[in-house]
Design brief:
- There is one protein chain.
- The chain has 933 residues and is α/β, with parallel strands linked by helices.
- The chain is 44% helix and 16% strand.
- Strands 7-6-8-9-10-15-16-17 form an 8-stranded mixed sheet, sandwiched between helices.
- Helix 4 packs parallel to helix 5.
- The longest helix is centred in the last third of the chain and has 30 residues.
- It is a multi-pass membrane protein.
- It is found in: Membrane.
């Protein structure tokens, strides 16, 4: 359908096609506006390339390359006409069009007729090869140019830019790409100013847009247009004072084209463009380039100077010639055939039959994309990805316009970023795009200054900043207005002024008190005034909370804050049982149990081998109790002999050391520090009770208690001053007050009968509020950090907020003495319990092994007990026997068995020996001799 629309406007009355060349000629078309700088330079360069190719018969094998030029004269209609005329005369390729607008249109015609379009000036990044496969850009497109500009903006530390552009496809899409590249570097375009496209723009349109730009906050301006409109913008900007110090102008490649090809024109405009930065496509030096530049004066007759686009024009012709040579060498023939889509559409006087399809167009396009050559512009090779057919290793020179011409301050390449070293030098090294490796030389900025502009001013062309400050009624140490004047003082104001002193620029401002002067203002409303533009900033004791950060930007906090609970307290009287307070009842009980358990374990482990743990039962009980509790003071006199017993005792002594040390520390605190008591233990107590809670008027505490903690609003009582705090707490109107820590510290400095209960249950800070993305917020944050590092912030705090009075006492008594709970020692008790269990288990296993070894399998048949009962009785007797005695008896038994085996008195010895063993190991028959030493 697009082709039909294009053809329908091609009204030719002739019925025969034009014969533009002989069969031996290869026709190539060129569509440009030859009155433009690039049009003039490109025509000369393409003609020179045509002559050079035709002078060498080896290139096309005796064929002649014939370039037909068509002047579109800024007209889209004439561009279409020229393209259709070329298609009539069997043209195998078209160089152009010059503008991206026409490239979007003519690419549909190229797709239909398979005739490649090659352009080095229509560099719109949205001319995708997926949509326009027969359109090829032979110069770096604007995506790379916008990437270079975005990296320059980031390199100099600017956050926002204003984009001025021609309102056509190339201008709009270029600025969209710039916005994307800036966003990747956490920058943005704050304002877009569209101008009429060349050549219809006029001074009135330009002036109206520049007046709007001058009212913007950003002073970094990117100018993406063409030479006629661009020079007009600079001229009007100079008249409006926008080329003075403080501004930054970055122009795209159109300005470098003027500087290179029209130096006289640039010199006439030098006052308007001085200090601007611009980009120029980088073309490395070579002998061929130098020789061509020497030929240029003869080629141009001195009418115009060469610029990089002339080099790209020359190379584009050579790309086509090499592709033709490869096409013919592959055995292909240049032929055309009728387009089947045009059959039946030839009514009237339209000569549609003259439009034919290039039969070898796909192969010819493939040959173009496989180009690998070194031209005047440097190495030429296309990316082979289907979604990106751009030139490999694109790069730009970065130029600064100065008093008498320009100076090059560095390079940008897609390989290594910003550098003062030429890209060719860096291609042999690994790519390194880190910020530490990005460098540019010094710049002379607009106004002749060499110091980097900060890149922004306050809106409305730098008028005084309107700063809202809370008109407080209470806690006036933070912010207060002097009665009868507009002067504002206080801790927050001093911090703000101190931070301003660290900024490298002045900030004219005026303070505007907010509030009726009868009660503290609502801080949410004050912050909202910043978002609506009523205030340019808000300075004061403004807490940084979540719902506020969604709409404005805060600086770095200059003081820590957080909500705390304040409640009345009473002194605890000392009593005779104070020594029991360090431990909770459960802690006392568990500790006592472990004393007994460990004593019993040690007794079991030592009883069979240690004489100190043997004897009558009453004596052993006393020994165990004495040993157990004497370990509390490390005064036990009984020695442990067994290895297992020593291990258990070492672990237990370590546990005792920790427990006694903790007890001593806690008891010392109880007996020496004044203890305070209150039924309110913290915010948890308030949440589970139905007591009323006080809060400061205007504070965010009200919303926090309702929305975050789900406390009914009916329980909340608004209080306006420290005196109201005290009165409400004393008469029971409220059980506690919830407020921010800085206010509470001041309150407690004069009211010692109250104390902070629990800990802070929110963590935040106070900061200065600015509109979203305000660069002043970033600079002020840096200044606040500097104040904190050099100690100045602490000095301001001490000046306003350090109170003597009883603040130190209340600080030390802000919480109850915490008793030591079992949870704090659970790990120690667990280790000790596991060690005791393992020791007993190992001991039992060893004893069972000994029992099997030293006792007979069968019980005495004379005993009436059942076998299991007798066996258990035997084991208990064995467990009570001393180890040395068991070993001695076992030895005697083995001797008797030896005698019996030799035949001496088998029956007698056997019976006597059995009686003796039974008598020795039976506690019932030896009358307790086994308890003796």
């Amino acid at each position: 359908m697009n082709l039909v629309l294009l053809v329908s406007i091609f009204i030719l009355c002739t019925g025969t096609s034009l014969e533009g060349a002989l069969r031996s000629n290869v026709s190539v078309g060129a569509i440009f506006s030859f009155s433009t700088i690039n049009g003039q330079v490109s025509k000369i360069a393409m003609k020179a390339a045509e002559d050079d190719i035709n002078s060498d018969p080896r290139i096309l094998g005796g064929r002649k390359l014939f370039i037909k030029f068509h002047d579109s004269n800024f007209s889209g209609f004439l561009s279409i006409m020229g393209a259709l005329q070329f298609m009539e005369t069997d043209t195998i390729a078209i160089i152009g069009p010059q503008s991206a607008v026409m490239a979007h249109v003519l690419s549909h015609l190229a797709n239909e007729l398979h005739v490649p379009l090659l352009s080095f000036t229509a560099l719109d990044p949205t001319l995708s090869p997926l949509q326009y496969p027969f359109f090829v850009q032979t110069a770096p497109n604007d995506e790379f140019q916008m990437t270079a500009i975005a990296e320059m903006v980031s390199y100099y530390g600017w956050a926002e830019v204003v984009a001025i552009y021609s309102d056509d496809d190339q201008g709009r899409n270029g600025v969209i790409t710039l916005g994307d590249k800036l966003a990747e570097r956490r920058c943005k375009i704050s304002y877009k100013s569209a101008l009429p496209p060349d050549p219809i723009g006029n001074e009135t349109d330009v002036t109206n847009e520049l007046v709007k730009v001058r009212m913007m906050e950003s002073r970094v301006i990117v100018l993406h247009t063409f030479s006629k409109t661009g020079l007009m913008v600079f001229d009007m900007a100079r008249r409006l004072g926008m080329m003075d110090s403080g501004y930054v102008w970055i122009a795209t490649t159109w300005l470098s084209t003027v500087l290179d090809s029209k130096p006289l024109l640039a010199s006439n405009k030098s006052n308007s463009i001085k200090g601007a930065l611009t980009l120029r496509p980088h073309t490395p030096d070579s002998k061929r380039k130098k020789d061509f530049m020497l030929r240029w004066n003869k080629l141009s007759n001195g009418s115009i100077e060469l610029n990089p686009y002339g080099l790209y024009a020359y190379d584009t012709v050579w790309i086509i010639a090499r592709a033709i040579k490869l096409f013919l060498d592959q055995g292909n023939t240049i032929s055309f055939s009728n387009d089947s889509n045009l059959i039946g559409l030839g009514g009237g006087t339209l000569n549609l039959g003259a439009l034919s399809v290039f039969d070898g167009g796909n192969q010819f396009l493939k040959n173009i994309l496989q180009t690998n050559m070194t031209g005047l512009s440097g190495p030429i090779q296309f990316n082979q990805e289907i979604q990106d057919r751009s030139l490999l290793l694109p790069s730009f020179d970065i130029i600064n316009v100065v008093e008498h011409g320009y100076q090059q301050i560095g390079y940008w390449s897609n390989y290594s970023g910003l550098s003062v070293v030429s890209p060719e030098t860096l291609y042999g090294k690994p790519p390194n795009r880190s910020s530490s490796n990005q460098h540019l030389n010094d710049v002379v900025w607009p106004g002749g200054v060499t110091a980097k502009p900060r890149g922004w001013v306050f809106p409305d062309n730098g008028r005084k900043l309107r700063i809202g400050v809370p008109n407080r009624v209470s806690y006036r140490d933070f912010v207060y207005k002097v009665n009868g004047s507009d002067i504002v003082h206080g801790y927050c104001i001093d911090v703000f002024h101190a931070a301003l002193n660290f900024l490298p620029y002045s900030v004219p401002h005026t303070f505007i008190p907010y509030g009726d002067g009868h009660q503290n203002p609502n801080y949410n409303e004050l912050v909202y005034k910043v978002t609506t533009g009523d205030f340019d900033a808000a300075v004061g004791d403004i807490a940084i909370v979540t719902n506020r950060t969604r709409t404005i930007d805060f600086t770095q906090p200059y003081i820590e804050s957080g909500l705390v609970v304040v409640a009345p307290v009473k002194k605890l009287n000392k009593n005779a049982w104070a020594f029991l307070q360090p431990f909770t009842p459960l802690m006392w009980a568990v500790t006592a149990i472990f004393f007994l358990v460990v004593g019993a374990v040690v007794w079991i482990l030592e009883h069979r081998i240690n004489d100190e743990f043997r004897g009558p039962p009453k004596r052993q009980i006393v020994t165990v109790l004495w040993f157990t509790f004497s370990t509390m003071f490390f005064a036990h006199r009984e020695n442990t002999v067994s290895t297992l017993g020593r291990i258990v005792l070492i672990i237990w002594l370590f546990v005792v050391l920790i427990i006694t040390s903790s007890y001593t520390a806690s008891l010392t605190s109880i007996l020496t520090v004044q203890q305070l008591s209150s039924p309110i233990k913290g915010i948890d107590t308030l949440m589970t009770s139905n007591d009323r809670i006080g809060y400061q008027v205007g504070s965010f505490a009200e919303n926090y208690l309702i929305e975050e903690l789900s406390i009914p609003k009916s329980r909340l009582v608004a209080l306006g001053s420290p005196e109201e705090y005290s009165l409400a707490l004393l008469n029971g109107t409220v059980a506690a007050v919830v407020d921010e820590r800085p206010y509470v510290d001041l309150f407690l400095s004069d009211h010692c009968q109250f104390s902070i209960r629990g800990v802070e249950f929110t963590k935040s800070g106070w900061g200065f509020a600015f509109p979203r993305d305000s660069p002043l917020a970033i600079d002020m944050s840096t200044a606040i950090l500097t104040l904190s590092e050099n100690g100045e912030l602490q000095k301001i705090h001490d000046k306003w907020l350090l109170k003597k009075s009883c603040s130190s006492d209340s600080e030390s008594s802000q919480v109850d003495s915490e008793q030591l709970h079992i949870e704090s020692f659970l790990g120690l008790f667990l280790i000790c319990g596991i060690a005791s269990f393992l020791a007993l288990f190992i001991y039992f296993c060893l004893m069972v092994r000994q029992f099997k070894r030293y006792t007979p399998e069968d019980p005495d048949p004379s005993t009436p007990r059942s076998f299991p009962t007798a066996r258990l009785q035997t084991f208990l007797s064995f467990a009570d026997e001393k180890v040395e005695r068991i070993k001695s008896k076992s030895k005697r038994k083995r001797e008797e068995m030896s005698i019996r085996s030799n035949g001496f008195g088998k029956e007698t010895e056997s019976r006597n020996g059995s009686d003796r063993i039974q008598r020795d190991i039976s506690p019932e028959r030896n009358n307790g001799d086994s308890w003796r030493d």
